[in-house]
């Protein structure tokens, strides 16, 4: 079996402060965490079916405030857990990620997350932090 997880460095693990609890006509689901890797994004979901049938993974979308287009590459489920992998990774300048669930006529908000600056990013170096010796 091919490992579905992105390659590269793990940059951040985002934990929603209130979890992304969401309900559709078919399923109740909760976004447990979002991992930002060097080559993609992993959304870890807990699923609760509304009926006594095996739940189908929820359909979600990922967006940031920069307008980056994220595409789902794969979805893997094991019991009540579902992992969805999106590419590309977040740009260095991205400061927020939003998970949405498409509903008829709208894209309902599931959870919004703050994205910290990446270690070593140029944005972190501010001119006032640089010492000049005379």
Text of the CATH class: Mainly Beta
What can be said about the biggest beta sheet? Answer: 6 strands, antiparallel
Low-confidence stretches: 124-132
Report the radius of gyration as a whole number of Å: 17 Å
Give the overall shape, derived from the CA principal axes: globular
The mean pLDDT is: 83
Return the structural class: mainly beta
CATH architecture: Sandwich
User: If helices are DSSP runs of H or I spanning 4 or more residues, what is the number of helices?
Assistant: 0
**Percent range of helical residues:** under 10%
- β content, as a range? over 45%
| Counted beta strands | 9
Query: How many individual domains?
Result: 1
Which fold name fills CATH's third level, the topology? Immunoglobulin-like
The H/E string reads EEEEEEEEE
End-to-end distance, in Å?
61 Å
Describe the model.
This protein is mostly beta strands and 134 residues long. It has one domain (10-129): Sandwich (Immunoglobulin-like), CATH 2.60.40. The chain is built from no helices and nine strands. The chain has strands spanning 10-14, 20-23, 27-37, 41-49, 61-64, 71-78, 81-87, 96-103, 106-114. Strands 1, 2, 3, 4, 6 and 7 form a six-stranded antiparallel β-sheet that branches. A three-stranded antiparallel β-sheet has the order 5-8-9, with no helix packed on it. Strand 2 and strand 3 form a beta hairpin. The protein is globular. It starts with 9 loop residues before the first strand and ends in a 20-residue tail after the last strand. The relative contact order is 0.22.
